[in-house]
Amino acid sequence: MKQNDYDEAYSSFWSSFGSGRHMVLSTACGDHVSSRMMSVVYIDGCLYFQTFRTSRKYEQLKENVHVALCCDNIQIEGSAEEAGHPLDNPAFCTAFHEKYPSSYDYYTSLECEVLYRVRVSRIERWGYKDGRPFLEVFDTERKIHTVEEQEYRHS
Questions:
Q1: How far is CA 109 from CA 27, 123, 149, in A?
Q2: pTM of the model as a whole
């Protein structure tokens, strides 16, 4: 296992991630887990998304703030907190409008919309270097970054 400079690697990760992505958001309540595609933006170390107050997702988040998001070769875990109405957050509005203009125009001003901020606790990203698979992990609570080559065995 290789340990790297956390701050530099973390900054590099978010630079490559960009201002936002469509991601699968998974939420759970009791024994019920559900997932759906979301339009997510990254602002100052947190991920943001908006949703209807009448959705199943909203009800699950009221019961359990722990979430997972994934796209491509990236999995992110964290806790979601309600952050008011989307229009009350100018940084979100700017980022969301730039990344998803039609969703912004259609949903953001609706009265039933609510904004969520996800505080990231763990990131995993799979990659390849010199044809060999590796797993990169960020433990954001302990500020630890590791890169570990993974061995695959074929039967």
A1: 24, 31, 46
A2: 0.91
User: Residue 46: what are its φ and ψ, rounded to 5°?
Assistant: -130, 155
- Residue 141: give the domain boundaries: 2-149
- Please give the Cα distance from 78 to 154 (Å, whole number): 33
> Beta partners for 49?
116
Q: 155 lies in a domain?
A: no
11: Cα separation from own chain's centroid: 15
Cβ atoms within 10 Å, residue 87: 15
Cα distance between residue 19 and residue 120, in whole Å: 15
- In angstroms, how far is CA 21 from the centroid of its own chain? 9
**With bands split at pLDDT 50, 70 and 90, how would you rate the model's confidence at 141?**
very high
- Specify if 40 maps to a domain: yes
Per residue in 6-18, pLDDT tens? 999 999 999 999 9
Query: How many angstroms separate the CA atoms of 24 and 50, rounded?
Result: 13
